[in-house]
Structure formats: C-alpha cells, structure tokens
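debug: dumping io for the single-chain case to check the tokenizer round-trip. Nothing else runs in this session.
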Amino acid sequence: MSWRTATAFRPRQDFAYLVPTPEDVMRLTGTPERPFIALANAYDEGFATCWPAGSRLLLDRVAAPGPGPLDLRALFASAAARFLRDAVTLLPQFDEQWPLDPSGALMLATGHGDVVDVAWIGAARALQVRADELVAWTTPHTMREQSAAQVPATEVASLPTVLVRSIRETPAVPELASFRLERGDRLLFVQGSGFEADANAYARAARAASAEQAATEAVALGSGQEVFVSAVCLERA
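debug: decoded output
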C-alpha cells in the first residue's frame, strides 16, 4: 500500500515580525508506504499568533518514527514535554516586554496499510474526502468549534478562533482519531495561524484535480491576513 503526498504553504507577505518558513511549521517524512506528518504552531505568550522558533523547536522534538508500530500518544507526549522543557531557553520574538509563557499546537499523523492515525491538540484539522463527499474529520480545539453546538450557525463564523486547548503542561494528552481510506480517497491536513475556514470549504479544496492542487487550494482559503497557512494532502494510491 502506498500514498501520494503533496504540500503547500502560504505566508503573509506584510507581516512586521518574523515570518515562519515551511520547515518551521510543517514536516512530511517517512516513506510512500508509511508517511509521517507533523504540523505545529507555537506561542511565546498568550496573545501571540505564532512563534517560528518555538514551532521549529516543537517539530524538532518529535522523535523520528521507527520501523515498528507507532504509539502516537506516547510520541506526542514526549515531544510536548521536551518542547516545554527546552522552550524556556528561547527568547520571545514578538514582544519581549512580555514574560515567556511557551505553549503550542501540534498534529501528528502516520499512515499504515489503508489507515491513517492522527493525534492532535490545537487548531489543525484533518478531513477525509471520498469522491465528492466529506466522510470524516477532526474537530479543532477552538472556541468557534466548541460553541458550534450551542450557537446558531449564522453566528458561529463571528466567534474568535482562539484555542481552548494547547500544549501548556505535562503530560500533554492529545485527542486521537483514525481514518480508513479507500483507493482514491484523500486526507487533507490544514494548519494556520489565526485561520479557521468552514469544513465544507476544505472539502471543496480536497476535491481538486490533483493532490498538489488540493493542498494549494486549501492554503488559499484564508483572507491573506493569517501569518501562515500550511497544508498536506495524502491520497491513497
């Protein structure tokens, strides 16, 4: 069993502070038979939208998966603990008048056979599309998503996209999900800074003519005010 993969990244062009690079916030490793995805966005204090050095540190602390079965929960918890331990050695990059208060959002995913396992804390989202149908998805840990069941649909879009869960203390216990993909299915992963589009919009992007185009269309969904948007598209070959 093999997977086709594609990535896309779009930074904000006029951002006054350090703009992350793709390697700061997104890693795609592994093999065509067993891809491994990591998406991150770290924060140096409570009002930050992103922290490139912290995001890179968080991804660097994710241990490379070995050849055997992968325990995503343990891998996630280890990376989170090492990030919180080491992040205090970094300097804040946006407003050094604030005390360093590191936190982060992380999504990990691995494919094996026809299954993709996902572990996450934060606002990243994974969606499975089969033909023209959105068949499964993860729920971001944001105020908007948390309130969706109680707030009228017409008001949900106006709610802030602030996180209600992030990596702040150990042990960090991620939410887990598994997706079983049929041949031709796509799984789209999207992570952004201050960005949360409707799931149906992501699904439309995932139906693009190719995996490369799907990832490109996903990062184009924002308004352009986000510090960055990154996407990975997996397609079962």
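debug: round-trip ok. The chain is about 25% helix and 30% strand.
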